[in-house]
Amino acid sequence: MLSVRNLALAYGKRILFDEVNLNFTKGNCYGVIGANGAGKSTFLKILSGQVEPNKGYVEITPGERMAVLKQNQFEFDECTVINTVLMGHKKLWDIMHEKDAIYMDPDSSEEDYLRAAEMEAEFGEMGGYIAESNAAALISNLGVVEEFHHQLMKDIPATLKVRVLLAQALFGNPDILLLDEPTNGLDIETISWLEDFLADYENIVLVVSHDRHFLDAICTHVADVDRQKIRIFTGNYTFWYESSKLMSRQINDKNKKVEEKRQALMDFIARFSANASKSKQATSRKKALEKLTIEEIEPSYRKYPGIIFQPLREPGDQILHVEGLKKTVEGRVLFDKVSFTLNKGEKVGIISKDTLAVSNFFQIISGNAVPDEGKFEWGTTINFAYLPVENKDFFENDMELLDWLRQFTPQHVTDTHESFFRGFFGKMLFSGDDILKKTKVLSGGEKVRCMISKMMLQNPNVVLLDQPTNHLDLESIQAFNESCQEFPGIVLVSSQDHTFMQTVCNRIIEITPRGTIDKLMSFDEYLDDEKVKQLREEYYEE
Predict the structure, then answer these.
(1) Using CA atoms, how far apart are residues 197 and 177, in angstroms rounded to an integer?
(2) 8 A C-beta contact, residue 136 and residue 149
(3) The dihedral of CA 186, 192, 193, 196: what is its sign?
């Protein structure tokens, strides 16, 4: 059991938490959600003792062990990979070194050896004699191959360090597991393994993540950080989102009778409970939903941005033709022989095992880079808007937001009054004096919201999106996702957000060093297709 009592934390006049009381129980996985800056990561740090609250306390059942996903990739630079993982179980690690020190000390006394014998027994009970093989299996499952296991952390690629730190947190079956953005830097296959691991986990898990598919796969409950409080709701993220929307509609619908509203909510719970049996967290989530009462469902007070792309004109038959594109960086082939033609009504997921390949591809077709070989041609009716993965070049000049957006006014726009531009910022939740902010003080999320305002201003009929969910909170991701689903034009998107790709795309194009894999199917169908799996092995083999 993990409990929080009368928790309060403030930084000056800014209150993050006030009188928070919660219980987290064994067998449940809690997805901690909330707007950027609401205090999700800070809450995990309070639980782990890294941050001291102004008031209140955290209580853990005596004897239970807590593990935390470390964020400092340099903390273990002088340790081997395997030892870094073993350090995740501090008690086991300490016993191992204390008893070994006794055996290695020629001056050890008989009393010391008796102490070592006691530790040997405890070490065995803790699984110490198979600990190294368990640690090796764990990091292998997380995509760290055996050749790295006995290297120093400072000598392995940075992309693998986050996986080792994740293995460190998972190692030894901790009673309480705190994970802050555990899917960062993981590929699709590794995320799927982690989903299975956590779905079967029998202890307490608290996880902060912006990956809705991941939250849906693992969570039995949602811990919602909002308005200085934290409330726990039954179900995964999608259930929380859909039920809160339904409750908001019910409250606003004054004409419906109470009985009709209650029946609608009961039907919703029953439908979602049935669907839970198809998920990885089936048993525990279904049990939780069966105990749910209607009174526990509450409307969300969140504000969602209004992302609306309104095409100036419908795209013609000629949209985009790509033929034989190739790009090499520092002697490494990112992609080659990339050829395809876009058609009306298509929303295409662009993927690759190399994210650099995707970003270079988008840079080329947007006219910001030149291919080594090949060509591409946009149709004459096409007006595209591009959201690059890196946007720092757009914010080099220290301008007020109003002037920043005004500089991107397209020729077809004749209204240049302040109120016109305020409308775009308002849709992206910049209000009042926010538009007087200077671009150099913007957060990563604010910059992305500015870039989306710029895209909406262009009235595109094609949108190019390279990692569109980066830096955004769940509310913005949800709104962006739904906008792309409803957009009447063409979408080309690459995203680590599984739900975004699955719900938007009806065609998947994978660009590889040996050519293109092009399939008219959903993202999940593509990942599960056996013929595609064989093709991927052939196209990526050394």
Answers:
(1) 12
(2) yes
(3) positive
The answer to whether position 183 is within a domain reads no
- Residue 13 tokens, joined: 């006049």
For residues 346 and 380, membership in a common domain is answered with yes
Is 532 inside any structural domain? yes
**Residue 22: per-residue pLDDT:** 96
> How many other C-beta atoms can be found within 10 angstroms of the C-beta atom of residue 421?
22
Q: Which of 479, 173, 138 is nearest to 306 (CA)?
A: 479
256 and 340 share one domain: no
Contact yes or no for 86/139 (Cβ under 8 A) = no
Ramachandran quadrant class, 305 (left: phi over 0; alpha: psi -120 to 50; beta: rest): beta
Q: Report the number of distinct structural domains present in the chain.
A: 2
73: phi then psi, degrees, rounded to nearest 5: -75, -10
Tell me the C-alpha to C-alpha distance, in Å, between residue 267 and each of 94, 235, 250, 434.
Answer: 54, 15, 14, 42
Q: How far is CA 95 from the centre of its chain?
A: 36
| Residue 105 clears pLDDT 90, i.e. is over it | no
Q: Is residue 154 part of a domain?
A: no
**282 and 361 housed in the same domain:** no
Short-list 336, 443, 325, 313, CA closest to 382? 313
Least confident of 106-120, 139-153, 274-288, 435-449: 274-288
C-beta of residue 326 within 8 angstroms of C-beta of residue 335: yes
CB of 351 within 8 A of CB of 536?
no
HEC-encoded secondary structure of 405-448: HHCCCCCCCCCCCHHHHHHHHHHCCCCHHHHHCEHHHCCHHHHH
Q: Which residues pair with 206 in a beta bridge?
A: 30, 178
Element (H, E) at 106: none
> Which tokens hold the place of 479?
């709104």
Helices within 200-344 (DSSP H only): 212-218, 237-252, 258-276, 282-290
Which domain, by its residues, includes 507? Answer: 320-540
Q: In one letter, which amino acid is 3?
A: S
Average pLDDT over residues 49-64: 95
**Is residue 392 located within the same domain as residue 289?**
no
Give the Cα separation of 56 and 70 in Å (integer).
25
Strands 462-466 and 507-512, by their bridges, are: unpaired
290 and 326 housed in the same domain? no
- Residues 386 and 423 reside in one and the same domain: yes
Confidence (pTM)? 0.85
Q: Is 86 helix (H, G, I), strand (E, B) or coil?
A: helix
- Distance, CA of 504 to CA of 487 (rounded, Å): 10
CATH number of the CATH domain containing 527: 3.40.50.300
List, for residues 418-466, the tens digit of each pLDDT value: 899 999 999 999 988 888 899 988 999 999 999 999 999 999 999 999 9
DSSP 3-state percent helix, strand, coil across the chain (nearest 5): 45, 20, 35
Query: Are both 277 and 422 inside the same structural domain?
Result: no
Q: What is the dihedral of CA 299, 305, 306, 307, to 10 degrees?
A: -130
Counted residue by residue, the chain has a size of 542
| Same domain assignment for residues 369 and 262 | no
Tell whether 364 is covered by a domain: yes
Helix axes 158-170, 131-141, angle to 10 degrees: 130
